[in-house]
């Protein structure tokens, strides 16, 4: 009986540990924030430095806001995270990508945009936050 309890306990730890680790990375309050300033506050971002070392590749005009392709590359040394935000969305924080040591800080994704707005990218490197924006004109509403 003790062996069965031990194996069940061990199995639970092995299965639940990765789930608990992912939950620790998930910043629920930042993703649920309704305002851009509130989302950045929950990401613990105080000061942002405008940087030309962040490349945002997105269309000038998006035919459909439901599917807007976005590429982001950080040329900032020691990039740890890249956050993508859209101010005029119901929830501005779209994604927050974390990078391990040595990983190339480059992401390609598709986002939803409710209306014409700036795509704002915030890069964390060490204790500093860098930012860049790109305006995208949305011709057809993507989310509401």
Q: Short summary of the structure?
A:
By secondary structure, the protein is of the alpha+beta class. It is built from three helices and nine strands. The strands form two sheets. Strands 1, 3, 5, 6, 8 and 9 form a six-stranded mixed beta sheet that branches.
What is the fold's blueprint, element by element?
Layout lengths: L1 H24 L2 H5 L3 H7 L5 E3 L3 E4 L3 E2 L5 E7 L4 E8 L6 E6 L7 E6 L5 E9 L2 E11 L6
Parallel strand pairs: 1-9, 3-9
Antiparallel strand pairs: 2-4, 4-7, 5-6, 5-8, 8-9
CA-CA gap between termini: 55 Å
Fourth CATH level, the homologous superfamily:
SoxY domain
Q: And the CATH topology?
A: Immunoglobulin-like
Order of helices and strands: HHHEEEEEEEEE
Largest sheet: 6 strands, mixed
* Estimated structural class: alpha+beta
What shape does the CA trace take? globular
Which parts are unreliable, with pLDDT below 50 for 5 consecutive residues or more?
A: 19-24
Number of helices: 3
- Report Rg: 19 Å
Strand content: 35-45%
Q: Look at the structure and give the mean pLDDT.
A: 85
Which architecture name does CATH use?
Sandwich
How many beta-strand elements? 9
- The CATH class: Mainly Beta
Helical coverage, percent range: 25-40%
What count of domains describes the coordinates?
A: 1
Question: Could you characterize the architecture of this molecule?
Answer:
This protein is of the alpha+beta class and 144 residues long. It has a single domain (2-138), classed as Immunoglobulin-like, CATH 2.60.40.2470. Helices cover 25% and strands 39% of the residues. It is built from 3 helices and 9 strands. The chain has helices spanning 2-25, 28-32, 36-42, and strands at residues 48-50, 54-57, 61-62, 68-74, 79-86, 93-98, 106-111, 117-125, 128-138. Strands 1, 3, 5, 6, 8 and 9 form a 6-stranded mixed beta sheet that branches. β8 (117-125) and β9 form a beta hairpin. The longest helix is centred in the N-terminal third of the chain and has 24 residues, at 2-25. The protein starts with a helix and ends in a 6-residue tail after the last strand.
């Amino acid at each position: 009986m003790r062996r069965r309890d031990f194996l069940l306990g061990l199995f639970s730890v092995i299965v639940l540990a990765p789930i608990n680790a992912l939950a620790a990375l998930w910043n629920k309050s930042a993703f649920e924030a309704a305002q851009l300033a509130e989302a950045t506050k929950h990401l613990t971002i105080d000061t942002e430095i405008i940087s030309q070392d962040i490349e945002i590749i997105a269309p000038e005009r998006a035919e459909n806001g439901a599917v807007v392709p976005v590429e982001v590359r950080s040329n900032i040394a020691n990039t740890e995270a890249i956050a993508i935000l859209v101010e005029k969305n119901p929830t501005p924080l779209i994604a927050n990508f974390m990078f391990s040591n040595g990983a190339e800080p480059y992401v390609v994704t598709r986002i939803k945009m409710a209306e014409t707005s700036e795509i704002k990218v915030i890069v964390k490197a060490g204790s500093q936050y860098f930012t860049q924006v790109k305006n995208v004109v949305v011709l057809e509403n993507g989310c509401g």
